[in-house]
Amino acid sequence: MSESSQPLQDLQYIKTMMDRSSRFETITSLAWVLAGLIAFGGAFYATKFFSHAGGYLATVTSRDAGQFRPLLYTGAIAFILATIVCMSITLIRLRPLKGKLLQRPILRLAVNLNLPLFAGAVLLYALYQLSGFEYFAPVSLLMYGLGLFNAGRYSIDAMRYLGLACMALGTIAVLMPAFGFTAWVVGFGVGNLLFGIYQYRKTGF
Amino acid sequence: MKNIIEGLNKAFESRVRLGIMSILMVEEGIDYNSLKETLDVTDGNLASHASALEKLHYIAISKSFVGKKTRTVYAATAEGRNAFSSHLAYLEKLLKPHT
What is the distance of C-alpha A165 from the center of its chain? Predict the structure, then answer.
């Protein structure tokens, strides 16, 4: 190993080393915390649309798409908003490392997280056709959990545990549909928030 | 130009140290053998450069036992991450002398 003084060669060497190792942990703690808070906000807003008689369960078991749609839109908007916020924070945060260096690790992480989410979206579409609205929250949790568990291989290990926790919540909510809303709030809200705090204590922002 | 070169961190002059930090920027924690394999260096080489980085508080080295064997795990500290990020920024600057 020779002593190095060439910036270009140094950068290429750094890139090779980063590519060769498979993990990428810099989804920042702030992104997780904000994702959690957005989920709380969405959940709070969604309570407006619960039919008055029976709350969440009555709304999702009504088989009335008109009653369910506001909940669906709220959830979808919360998810899209959280995704945009997380991506922007990560990109801003990584600017000092200059995009190209981390392209492949980030891509690996993104693909592994998003494929299960895509499968989840397809499943939700099928459920919508069947008016199985009470399974939206559990299936979202299951597929989100699967995504995290999968992507965790390319990031910090704790992400895999968050994924398992979400899958457990999803499973319970499939068996107990009345628990669906609470499970959603615990998984997407509390889960992401706690994970953000955990990561903040470990690596800072 | 000279000022910029002075901004380069001496701790990262060696390829091995540069490699160790690059890997620890993307890995949460990595054990000795994986690190050695990824870097493709000899035992003595890795050990001496790692302990140099540890003295600077750029990396943390923790040892634990797996059965009767020791397992050494390396991780970058917040200080190390900052130092490496600014070193990278300097390298980038060197490549664009007009900015």
Answer: 13
DSSP letters along A9-29, please?
A: HHHHHHHHHHHHS-----S-H
Q: What is the separation of C-alpha A170 from the centre of its chain, rounded to a whole number of angstroms?
A: 14
User: Of all helices (H) and strands (E), which one includes residue A67?
Assistant: helix A65-94
Does B43 reach chain A within 8 Å, measured CB to CB?
no
> What does the DSSP 8-state code read for residue A190?
I
Q: What is the reported pLDDT for B1?
A: 44
Q: Within 10 A of A160 (CB to CB), how many other CB atoms are there?
A: 17
Which residues on chain B are in Cβ contact (under 8 Å) with A23? 26-28
Q: Which residues of chain B have pLDDT under 50?
A: 1-3
The predicted structure's pLDDT at residue A179: 92
Instruction: Give B40's contacts (C-beta < 8 A, 6+ positions apart).
Output: none
How many CB atoms sit inside 10 A of residue B25's CB? 25
Q: Residue A168 pLDDT more than 60?
A: yes
Report pLDDT for B23. Answer: 87
Confidence of residue A205 (pLDDT cuts 50, 70, 90): low
Between CA B14 and CA B21, with CA B17 as vertex, the angle to 5 degrees is 140
The number of beta carbons lying within 10 Å of the beta carbon of residue A192 is: 26
**What percent of chain A has pLDDT above 90?**
49
Tokens of A72: 């669906």
The CA-CA-CA angle for residues B36, B39, B42, to 5°, reads 55
Q: How confident is the model at residue A101 (pLDDT cuts 50, 70, 90)?
A: low
Q: Which of B51, B94, B74, B82 is nearest to A10 (CA)?
A: B94
CB A86 within 8 A of CB A31: yes
Mean pLDDT of chain A: 85
Mutation choice for A interface testing from B2, B17, B26 by most A CBs within 10 A:
B26
Looking at the partner chain, which of A13, A155, A204 has a beta carbon nearest the beta carbon of B18?
Answer: A13
Residue type, B98: H
